[in-house]
Amino acid sequence: MKLQVAIDRVDMERARELVERIAGEADIIEIGTSLTKEFGVRALEPLTRKATLLGDIKTCDEGKYEFDLGFACGFKYLTVMGSSSMGTLEACAASAAEHDGVMMVDLLECDEARIEKIAVFPDAVYCLHTSVDSGATKDPVAQVRAFKRRFPQIARIAIAGGIKQNQLSALAAEGLDIVIMGSAITKADDIQAACRACKEEMQ
Fold first, then answer.
1. Cα 151 from chain centroid?
2. Which residues form the Orotidine 5'-phosphate decarboxylase domain (predicted)?
């Protein structure tokens, strides 16, 4: 299981500082939607030279353009909303394949019928996502188990939404691809130590 650390709602200087601190500790560093909207992916390109980055661009249309741009700027992972049209999802998947990148499908507010319809991209990571506005994921392990039972055809799963360090061992045992954490690490007194502690918990 990979540890993805999300950086959100900070200025560019702080984002750069956080990437430098976390690089080498986290497997993936997420440049959150707030940063991609405020600064744009081109301005964030220098950060991609420091670590493996995910751009949480939350594409919902113009899939080829947005994914081609994100990958050209050095991002390894990019996000597309599961609520997007199949045309958009297909365009994003094709772009990811062309650029040796990874498409992450954000399942925010997607119901079971929608997930069933879009569960056709074997190389994509499907992210169980509880929104910030809705609060933390109450029982992420149970959520993952239920999802895997319902959608056994989805091999690569990520989870985000208030994940805590003491939940990581049980999540790792579920065979997740990626666990996503944010302020639990980025707001810690010692960010690098928090990263290391989370990685150890995942072993």
1. 19
2. 2-198
Q: What is the CATH number of domain 2-202?
A: 3.20.20.70
**Pairing relation of β-strands 53-59 and 28-31?**
parallel
The mean predicted confidence, pLDDT, of the chain is 95
Overall pTM > 0.85: yes
What is the spatial distance between Cα 124 and Cα 140, in angstroms, rounded to a whole number?
A: 20
Burial 127-139 (b: 16+ CB within 10 A, else e): bbbbeeeeeebee
| pLDDT at residue 91, as a whole number | 98
| Backbone dihedral angles phi then psi of residue 43, each to the nearest 5 degrees | -70, -25
Is the Cβ–Cβ distance between 32 and 15 less than 8 Å?
no
pLDDT of the residue at 136: 66
Rg (CA), the chain: 16
Task: Give the SS3 label for residue 60.
Answer: coil
Q: Are 67 and 59 in contact (CB under 8 A)?
A: yes
Task: For residue 98, give Cα distances in angstroms to 28, 42, 81, 122.
Answer: 21, 20, 20, 15
